[in-house]
Each structure stands twice: as C-alpha cells, then as structure tokens.
Amino acid sequence: MATTVVNEYRLNEDNELRLEVSNEDVVIELLNGTAELFGTQLILHKRYTLPAGFRGAIFTYQGAVIEVIGKTDSAYIAQQTPMIIYLNTHVALEALRENAEMQLKQDPNSTVRGPRIMVAGPTDVGKSTLCRILCSYAIRQSRTPIFVDLDIGQSSISIPGTIGALYIEKPADIVDGFDKNSACVFSFGHLSPAVNLLLYKTLITELAKVVKKKCKQQIAANVGGVVINTCGWVKGEGYDCIVHAAEAFEVDVVIVLDHERLFVELQHDLPSFVKILHQPKSGGVESRSREFRALSRRNVIHRYFYGPRNNPYFPHTFEISFDKPIDEQELIVAKFGAEQLPESCLPYGMEPEEHRTKVVRISISNELKNCVLALMPPSVNKVDQTLLEKPVHGFIVITNVDMEQKILSILSPQPYPLPSKIALFSEVTFIDDENV
Ligand code: ADP
C-alpha cells in the first residue's frame, strides 16, 4: 500500500516555499505563523488542496510552519525573493490612493484619481502574479481596484482569446484566484495580437472606455485604481500594443519586470509624467512549455463550462436547426475582420486597414466545429460595427455541425434556448470530451 508523503517546512521571515505539484493533488496547511499565497492570507490550520500542475509560492513576512501532504515535483524554501520590492510598490500605490481619497472628500468633482499601474515584460516573468499580489494587498486594505488583463493567450479573467476587466471586491481564493462572475470581457478571437493588431488595439480602447466610466461612476473604484496585466510580446508591434495600452488607460506607473530594453524604450516613448520602474522577476517563476500553456488554456475553458472541482457546474448540450429563413435563425455568427479589398476597389474615404475591424456575418460551416463562440448581450439584434463596443454575455462551444441535416450541437452554461442570437466567431477551440 502506498504511504502518503508528509513534509513539514519551517520558513524564516521573508522566505517562501516554492511548490510545483505533480500529477496528483497536494494538500497544504499553515501549522504556525502567518503566510500568504500570491497576496491571499492562509488561514491557520485550514487545509487547502492544490491541484495537479499547480505552481506557486507561499510567502511569509514573519515566519511560518507549513505542512505539505502529497507528492510534489519540487518543493524548496527560497530566501531571496522580490516580495519586499513588491510590498514597497504597494505602499507607494496606497499613498496615492489615500491622497486621491482625501482630495475627493474635500471636492467630489476633483479630477484626481487612484493609481493606474501597468505591468509589462516578456512571458513568464511573473506579470500576472505581480498583478494578483498588488490587487490582493489593495483588497487587504479595504480598497477595491479594477484588474485588467490584456494577455489574450493566458488571461486570468476569462477564457483565452479575450481581454477583460474585473472590479475586485473580495480577496482571491487561494486556488481559484479572484471571483470572475462580474467580469467585463471583450472577445478578440485569436491567441496572439499579431493576428489582427488593429482589432486588438481597438478592443483595448473600448475596454479602457468601460474602465474609465466605472471610475467616473464609483468613487471606490476610482480611488482603488487600475492594475493592468499585458501580453508578453515586447518587440516591434507587440511593443506598440504596450504603448497603446498605456495611453488608452492613461497609466501613471509602469512596472517593467526583468527587461532592460523595454524599460529604456518605455522611458523614451511614454510621457515624462509616467513613472517607469524596473523590477526583478522572482527566481521562482519558470518558463512554461508550449504544451503546458496549451493545457492551461484548455483547463481554463473546461473550468468555464464545468466549474472548479469543489463546486462543479452542469452545462447543457442541445441542438438547434439552421435550416430556417434568415430572420428566424436562432444563431447568427459574426466575426471581426473582413477579406482585404485591393486598394483600387476601396469605397471612397475607406482606409486600407479598416477591413481589419469590419464586422461581417459568416455562414455556418464545418469550420465552426469545436469553436468557442462569444455570445453578444441579448439586447443586440443586428450585425453591425457597434458589436466592437459590446462586452460579451458569455460563451458557448459548437460541438458539432451537421451540414446535411443543418443542425448545430451546442455546449452552453445555460439551457435551451440561447439567451441571445448573435455570437462572435473565435479561432479558440475546445474539444468537449465529457459529452461524447
Ligand atoms: P507571466 O504573467 O509573466 O507570464 P505568471 O505570473 O503567469 O507569468 O507566472 C508564471 C508561472 O510561475 C505561474 O504558474 C505562476 O504561478 C508561477 N510563479 C509565479 N511566482 C512564483 C514563485 N515565486 N514561485 C514559484 N512559482 C511562481
């Protein structure tokens, strides 16, 4: 009979226990002291299950004893971490929040606002982790910041291929992160901004408008400020996207993790009032392989439909016929980006680039099989350019297309009928092997 491996780790102050969970869950428990995982405090003697493949670090400011039950791929105590630098960053942001709060109390019409901070750097330097830590520290001081994720490949707000914003009102769960139910999400439909740069920038501008509106409407959101995670593509056009995002969100602070050239270039290209800081990455962050990324993308979509393990959802599968006249169709699929016309054929006044953001209807075909589609809000009833300004209502997967019988099979969080009939095409796919 296999015996369970139990290890106890004694951490001194400012140490962290770095864990890589293998293909079986691991249970952790704080036996003594205080500790946190990416900014969320662990409750003494509460047992947390870390899922297979989990990577992370349990940090302590004062010292802690942590028990790990189960087999890990790696577990070691690190004495060198950048956590004090990240904590100091939080302290500086908090001072800006206090100042904004004080001025708004004196004059509610003041244009002052909480800090808007953007984290940039290549992939796998801990950008999302730093954003989570900064948001968690803000929450621990009763602030309610807005977290924005522009990383379409590995979004921590919604499914891959999207950008989004989340108004954070409660601490992140140790394993599941922040509650994403009220996220505002725009569908880009591809896994890299390079596929359609103009569209990516357009959606960033739209998301920034939503975030600024929220800050205008709600003092607590304005004071809490905005924490923005970016894509790890930092060269050429990827760099242009970072500059565009900084401008669209009117950021005051940019933290560059682990990339000297990006730091120097941003100092040169962003206005002088933007504070640009160069900070180290944590030695615990390791590069993730292409396969690991693909698997974590799949897991995120699976979780969207089937829920976390401790609180499973039961999605619905149903069929709809598309053998109907146009105005009776139950599902109309649109996409952003039309075929490019030769310049000589462009209508008068149309810019050559504009086809990249043109909203067009597409016909139902086998190409839709396994695609994750973004449903537009129920109020949307026609396919036009305004779809670019609309956050998505939710997602469905086209699990099968029967072109002969003209039937679509659908995986949906909600039962039949679909809550809205217009959906956006996305190249992102999900093979639903639970329903075969
Ligand atoms: P990026 O956003 O730059 O791509 P992430 O923040 O997603 O990087 O971090 C990459 C991986 O490293 C994630 O799996 C994260 O959980 C893990 N990680 C982050 N910080 C640490 C750390 N201090 N120790 C161990 N793993 C970490």
From TrEMBL:
Residues 11-100 form the Clp1 N-terminal domain. Keywords: ATP-binding, mRNA processing, Nucleotide-binding, Nucleus. GO terms for biological process: mRNA 3'-end processing; tRNA splicing, via endonucleolytic cleavage and ligation. One of its GO terms (molecular function) is polynucleotide 5'-hydroxyl-kinase activity. GO terms for cellular component: nucleus. Residues 121-307 form the Clp1 P-loop domain. It is found in: Nucleus. Residues 315-432 form the Clp1 C-terminal domain. It comes from the Eukaryota. Pfam families: Clp1, CLP1_N, CLP1_P. The keyword ATP-binding applies. This is Protein CLP1 homolog.
